[in-house]
């Protein structure tokens, strides 16, 4: 019974890839193993339908070893909205693959935006760059514990700035810092954004995107910091934001920060922009090296610089990373040794609740040691309930589930380190099919 149901469901594939004399059982098995878990450590994932022939909706009868299998294309008996529902229960990687089966399935999957929008958010994926130069790598699905070979659009190098929100990923180049793209990496949809205003070739920049889950409108923020000529302690600091509805930039803040400069970490949570700023003062005063700056970008009236509020970070940090988890600001940071502020003795996670830092967790010692060559620099990002932490020096990926307070290593990344200076980094994004740039 179960078997005939499968033959029914996946007959469209058989029609696509072989002639009428093929071995239907074998074909089915191949297809099932490509849809379900396989033993390979990674799989390639392509979001587009590449077949050239139109698939006819017809009934086919085939014989094999004396057994007659009657193949009926599912889409010829089930209405499209039932197929919609069936697809919506599949994990996202299987849906993407199902879309490449035939034109009919492709159109059903790409026209069911209403159902996708109502689906619970998928668990975020983590894209790991495995090359120092090219922006190549693999994406990790923490639910199926699988790595996928996906080809990111737009981004050219792994050192570009990346920010993601609700399925969209924003990239900015690291040379001119003016080429900005917004894309959905799953469906390879992308758009180039106008160049941001403000100083050219800033010394430090930061990028943040925030996408509204229901309207799909988005805001991009670029923060620029440039040293005032001949003055080591004064820095120009400016905030520019892009509105996807108006398709234009506006500059909200343009000021000189005495004693502080911007960095490369920022995030938007609940309409508030958070960024880390760095002391330009004498080294050694470790407690004062970083502060968190907050700025409400949800208000449309022009702001004055006095609306900027700063707050100390919870302890002496290296590598502070700002993350939006369900619109709550969460910071992951390397806890610096008291006397050697560039060496870390652990990694902590804090949440900002009602303006106060609350320690959420610390990476347990055995996991911290598991990074191997943790050279005090690591990448960390997250959304929904998950935080990913990855050392620049290795491919080990640690996943923390905030709701269950659980630490887990990812399945092993398909790439191994080939030379000592090979660096790894990455970012997290939600795999969503319905959102376009
Ligand atoms: C941009 O390039 C600079 C210089 O190579 C590097 O220090 C910085 O980490 C890069 N930024 C990002 C986001 O990778």
Which descriptors apply to this entry?
single chain; 437 residues; alpha+beta; Neuraminidase; 2 domains; 4-stranded antiparallel sheet; disordered N terminus; binds 2-acetamido-2-deoxy-beta-D-glucopyranose
What does this structure look like?
With 437 residues, the chain is α+β, with helices and mostly antiparallel strands. It has two domains: 2-118, no CATH class; 125-429, Neuraminidase (6 Propeller), CATH 2.120.10. The protein has eight helices and 27 strands. It has helices at 2-17, 24-35, 74-77, 80-88, 92-99, 103-111, 113-118, 365-370, and strands spanning 42-44, 59-64, 67-72, 125-129, 137-141, 146-149, 161-165, 168-172, 180-184, 189-193, 204-211, 218-227, 234-243, 248-258, 260-269, 272-279, 290-296, 309-312, 317-325, 328-336, 344-353, 356-362, 378-383, 386-391, 397-401, 406-409, 425-429. It has a five-stranded mixed beta sheet, with no helix packed on it. Strands 7-8-9-10 form a four-stranded antiparallel beta sheet, with no helix packed on it. It has a four-stranded antiparallel beta sheet with strand order 11-12-13-14, with no helix packed on it. α1 (2-17) packs across α2. It starts with a helix and ends in an 8-residue tail after the last strand. Residues 1-39 and 51-69 have low confidence and may be disordered. 2-acetamido-2-deoxy-beta-D-glucopyranose binds at residues 159, 161, 174, 264. Residues 78-119 form the F-box domain. InterPro entries: Beta-prop_At3g26010-like (IPR056592), F-box-assoc_interact_dom (IPR017451), F-box-like_dom_sf (IPR036047), F-box_dom (IPR001810), FBXO31/39 (IPR045048), Gal_Oxase/kelch_b-propeller (IPR011043), Kelch-typ_b-propeller (IPR015915). Residues 1-18 form the signal peptide. Pathway: Protein modification; protein ubiquitination.
């Amino acid at each position: 019974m179960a078997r005939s149901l499968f033959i029914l469901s996946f007959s469209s594939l058989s029609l696509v890839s072989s002639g009428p004399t093929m071995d239907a059982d074998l074909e089915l098995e191949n297809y099932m193993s490509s849809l379900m878990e396989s033993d390979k450590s990674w799989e390639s994932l392509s979001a587009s339908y590449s077949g050239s022939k139109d698939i006819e909706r017809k009934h086919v009868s085939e014989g094999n070893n004396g057994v007659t299998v009657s193949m009926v294309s599912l889409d010829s008996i089930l209405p499209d909205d039932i197929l919609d529902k069936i697809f919506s229960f599949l994990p996202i990687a299987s849906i993407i693959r199902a879309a490449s089966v035939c034109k009919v399935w492709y159109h059903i999957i790409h026209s069911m935006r209403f159902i996708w929008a109502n689906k619970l958010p998928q668990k975020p994926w983590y894209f790991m760059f495995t090359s120092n130069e090219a922006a190549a790598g693999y994406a990790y699905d923490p639910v199926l514990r699988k790595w996928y070979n996906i080809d990111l659009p737009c981004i050219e190098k792994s050192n570009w700035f990346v920010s993601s929100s609700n399925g969209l990923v924003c990239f900015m180049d690291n040379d001119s810092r003016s080429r900005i793209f917004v894309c959905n990496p799953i469906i390879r949809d992308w758009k180039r954004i106008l160049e941001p205003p403000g100083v050219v070739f800033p010394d430090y920049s930061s990028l943040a995107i925030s996408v509204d889950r229901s309207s799909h409108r988005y805001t991009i923020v670029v923060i620029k910091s440039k040293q005032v000529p001949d003055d080591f302690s004064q820095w120009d600091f400016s905030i520019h934001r892009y509105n996807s509805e108006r398709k234009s930039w506006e500059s909200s803040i343009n000021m000189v920060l005495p004693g502080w400069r911007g960095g490369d970490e920022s995030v938007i949570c609940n309409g508030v922009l958070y960024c880390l700023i760095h002391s330009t003062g004498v080294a050694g005063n470790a407690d004062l090296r970083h502060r968190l700056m907050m700025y409400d970008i949800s208000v449309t009236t022009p702001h004055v610089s006095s609306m900027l509020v700063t707050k100390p970070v919870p302890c002496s940090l290296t590598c502070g990373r700002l993350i939006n988890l369900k619109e709550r600001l969460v910071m992951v940071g390397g806890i610096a040794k008291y006397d050697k502020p560039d060496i870390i003795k652990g990694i902590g996670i804090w949440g900002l609740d009602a303006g106060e830092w609350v320690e959420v967790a610390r990476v347990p010692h055995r996991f911290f040691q598991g990074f191997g060559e943790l050279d005090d620099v690591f990448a960390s990002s997250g959304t929904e309930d998950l935080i990913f932490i990855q050392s620049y020096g290795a491919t080990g990926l640690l996943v923390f589930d905030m709701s269950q307070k659980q630490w887990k290593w990812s399945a092993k990344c398909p790439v191994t380190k080939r030379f000592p200076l090979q660096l790894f980094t990455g970012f997290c994004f939600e795999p969503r099919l319905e959102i376009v740039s």
